[in-house]
TrEMBL record:
Native species: Wickerhamomyces mucosus
Gene3D superfamilies: Type I PLP-dependent aspartate aminotransferase-like (Major domain)
Residue stretches making up the Aminotransferase class I/classII large domain: 98-437
Record's protein name: aromatic-amino-acid transaminase
One Gene Ontology cellular component: cytoplasm
Organism phylogeny: Eukaryota, Fungi, Dikarya, Ascomycota, Saccharomycotina
């Protein structure tokens, strides 16, 4: 086991100025039977108008698929969580009297214990001083991370195309984003190294990346690229923010051979875990990775439950922020999710994730098959994703017959025309320019040179997650026909 580095010098002024809430220090006596607790504004749980919640869920191993409705008793799990611990059927349930109360800013112990075991099973973090705290999803986690590590006017590193909500969160806080070039396989380590080796002024404290199933690009960083990027982080002393909501939506490489697809299914837990790409946190020997995880893409977005994995010292700074902001995740979600996961167990949760892998692999295959069939090959390029919910299709705008005339050699004008043509045809894909990371550093940094081979390329992002398969194919057929018409093919 390695020992973490002290990275508190990278904390923001806000984080350095935060103190522990004196009221929170008193809460350790809340359940002490020898203390009459008169110190907090906690309503009596007798007045919570929920005595019990009952939830029906599918039972592992999900032999009929994760989307099948359970029809027999053996295919169901009934979770009943009561207000009082003595009435719960399991000792690891979180009673409503506790989950619906104030307190436990870091998270309910039972659920955190499950997530710690899960994290170690999957990532095998190579240092001991790590922990987990709850959040209300990765968007809130990212907001908390920015406030903890950055000041207004600071610069962070981001992928040149990224999740707009993440970029806007930084914009609103006055944090400048410096884009790092990517290709079909994510951040290009050599470009990142070149940027930082020639940096003028104070170095960025953070690299924000969606390394697996990147949104919007659909790219995934290889293990080799992650290791190279981590070495750059060590050299230039910045923290990697590993935003990983799509991590478990990993798949095999796409093949047009339908029969070969059948032989690629993952069956055993070991096969599944071994097939997962190396995470940044799993190669973090210095405690300079902050991993953002979430149930939004593997259970449901409305659970509003996520968690942050990092070295303990850094997590304490985020907890201080949470104490005066979100306070805690939803008590209902905590009790329900914990009840489900502890009944499934680690093995049952892996069964669920294996089922998700199978479903998303099939959806990805259907989407890429349709792109291959309906999109004009003369002007397009795509790289089938190996993770996530998204695919992108690139178009060479310079091959539009009116590129140099009607569109003034402006690829964005072609993008707008193609977007509108697709809408007219009854299909919507999102223009790639909507995801562009824009920023101006002070002092200004030297931008990467323009790639002449791709400077006129545009792309559109689509998802195979949101609609039934027949609608997915119909939408891509419509957009493909619109592209043929727009390019005069």
């Amino acid at each position: 086991m390695s020992t973490v580095k002290d990275l508190t010098h990278l904390l923001s002024d806000e984080a350095k100025s935060r103190r522990n809430s004196p009221l929170k220090t008193a809460f350790k006596y809340f359940n002490d039977p020898n203390v009459v607790f008169l110190g907090g504004g906690l309503p009596l749980s007798d007045y919570f108008p929920w005595n019990k919640i009952t939830v029906e869920s599918p039972a592992p191993p999900f032999k009929n698929g994760i989307g099948a409705t359970p029809s027999t008793a053996e295919e169901k799990i009934i979770t009943e969580v009561s207000k009082n611990a003595a009435e719960n059927s399991r000792s690891d349930d979180i009673p409503l009297s506790r989950s619906l109360q104030y307190g436990h800013t870091g998270g309910q112990p039972e659920l955190l214990n499950f997530l710690r075991e899960h994290t170690q099973l999957i990532h095998k973090i190579p240092y001991s001083e790590w922990d987990i705290i709850q959040s209300i999803g990765n968007t809130q986690s990212w907001d908390g991370v920015l406030r903890t590590f950055t000041n207004r006017g600071d610069t962070i590193l981001v992928e040149d195309f990224s999740f707009p909500s993440a970029l806007e969160t930084a914009n609103a806080l006055g944090v400048i984003q410096f884009p790092i070039p990517t290709d079909d396989f994510g951040i290009i380590p050599e470009k990142l190294a070149e940027t930082l080796d020639n940096w003028v002024g104070a170095k960025p404290k953070l690299l924000y990346t969606i390394p697996t199933g990147q949104n919007p690009l659909g790219s995934s960083l290889s293990a080799d690229r992650r290791k190279a990027i981590y070495k750059i982080a060590q050299k230039h002393d910045f923290i990697i923010i590993e935003d990983e909501p799509y991590y478990f939506l990993q798949m095999d490489t796409y093949t047009k051979d339908v029969e070969a697809r059948q032989g690629k299914a993952v069956h055993s837990h070991k096969q599944f875990i071994d097939a997962l790409v190396t995470s940044f946190i799993s190669i973090d020997t210095e405690g300079r990775v902050v991993r953002l995880d979430s149930f939004s893409k593997v259970l449901a977005p409305g659970t509003r439950f996520g968690w942050i994995v990092a070295q303990k010292e850094l997590l304490q700074s985020i907890i201080k922020l949470h104490e005066t902001s979100i306070q805690s995740a939803s008590g209902f979600s905590s009790s329900i999710i914990n009840g489900l996961l502890n009944r499934w167990g680690q093995d049952g949760y892996i069964d669920w994730l294996i089922g998700l892998r199978a479903e998303y692999t099939h959806k990805r295959d259907v989407a890429i098959d349709a792109i291959e069939k309906y999109f004009p090959k003369q002007v397009t390029h795509y790289n089938p994703p190996v993770a996530g919910m998204f695919f992108t299709v690139q178009f060479d705008a310079s091959k539009h017959p009116n590129f140099a005339t009607e569109f003034d050699s402006d690829p964005l004008k072609v993008e707008t025309a193609l977007y509108e043509k697709g809408l007219d045809a009854g299909a919507l894909l999102i223009p790639g320019s909507w995801f562009t990371a824009k920023g101006q550093t002070n002092p200004p940094q030297k931008p990467q040179p323009v790639d002449e081979a791709t400077k006129n390329h545009i792309f559109f992002r689509g998802t195979y997650a949101a609609v039934p398969l027949d609608q997915l194919v119909l939408g891509l057929e419509r957009f493909g026909k619109a592209a043929h018409q727009e390019f005069g093919l």
